[in-house]
Amino acid sequence: MINRDTGELVRLTHEKNSAFWQWAVVETLRLAGLRREEVVELTHLSVRQYQRPNGEGVALLVVSPSKSDRERVIPMSAELFHVAAQIIRRHREEHGTVPVCPHYDQSERTWCEPLPYLFQRVQSGTPRALSTSGVRQIVLDAAKALTPTHPQFAEIRFAPHDFRRLFTTDLVNNGLPIHIGAALLGHLDIQTTRGYVAVFDEDVIAHYTEFLDRRWAKRPPTEYRRPTDGEWSDFQEHFDKRKVELGSCGRPYGTPCAHEHACIRCPMLSINPKMLPRLDELEADLLARRQRAIDEGWRGEVEGLDPTARFLRSKRAQTHRAAAATGSVDLGMPPRPGARAGTGEGTGTGGFRGV
After folding, report:
1. Under a CB-based contact definition with an 8 Å cutoff, are residues 138 and 26 in contact?
2. What angle do CA 122, 128, 130 make, to 5 degrees?
3. 4: which of 147, 276, 313, 315 lies 20 to 30 Å off by Cα?
4. What is the sign of the dihedral through the CA atoms of 204, 205, 208 and 209?
5. What distance separates the 2 farthest-apart alpha carbons in the chain?
6. Are 34 and 184 in contact (CB under 8 A)?
7. Cα 80 to Cα 167: distance, rounded to the nearest angstrom
8. pLDDT in tens, 69-80
């Protein structure tokens, strides 16, 4: 077929087949959260049906052992079942059945037993199961095809595993317990699943706001009121008074300093990473004072300086770990409450309950 606008020869059958398998691969990755080696090993036998005691039928997908060497069975959504049904229908229309063909395992470098693989294409007149590199190329081609209409994709390199992360994030953010998500993904350690989940600030804020709305709805409205100017001023001064030389004090509102400003030994002290050099100076001073106390025979002084030095080293190590894990975030001060919904009135940061 010739494109009349450009005069380019279009291989219509080839383009049609490529479009179908691109759709099938991307939808399977998106809806099942499978690894690419698990996708290429799906067969006609992987699609099962389970009959519940009440007579309801549930479509299941049997995933062959891959990274964890454990077979698992996952329930299929209606959309995923539709994809599998379309693949099987296409094979039947072309061959009368799902052909049995060989599959080359690229990681093991061996030919696997011929099976009715779902993802297979005819190469040189012979059916061949799709390879893991073929899955990767299909995803890259799909992203590249979006570039003319979505220029932002030009800077992004999608990989099949990215759909696994998107699948996990969508499940957890929609309320599925993370241990169930780990079972669906085939993770032996739930911490692995946590690394896949991206929780965005907007989601956290929205969920917390919904929680506050539900809590307010269950409490008498008389328990919430707008703070007076004096109360609000006192609340703001509390945070100003928590600022100390080495960082900030985490004592709650309405409580004084319980450790007589012995900040190094106070568990409420949060060290500012910028003050790490100051900790080194304090440690040198403590060591000098301790040596003099030993020379002078001040045993009580030595007994008091030793735990202070231990607290200092512990806080320094903790600050180094926190600085390496993530950058500091300035949350700022909460706004002055106005209305109860969405403005902070009655919350733990801006309102007063039962005053």
Report:
1. yes
2. 105
3. 147
4. negative
5. 101
6. no
7. 13
8. 567 888 888 888
Two tokens at 118?
């779902």
| Residues facing residue 322 across a β-bridge | none
Residue keyed to tokens 């079942």: 81
pLDDT score recorded for residue 86: 92
Q: Flag whether pLDDT at 343 surpasses 50.
A: no
d(CA 58, CA 50): 5
Q: How big is the chain, counted in residues?
A: 355
CA-wise closest residue to 40 among 125, 112, 141, 144: 112
Q: What is the pLDDT of residue 36?
A: 87
Provide the residue type at 64 as one letter: S
pLDDT at 114 over 70: yes
**pLDDT tens-digit map of 267-313:** 778 888 888 888 889 889 989 999 999 999 998 888 888 888 888 88
- Burial bucket for residue 327 (CB in 10 Å: 0-12, 13-18, 19+): exposed
Q: What is the pTM of this model?
A: 0.50
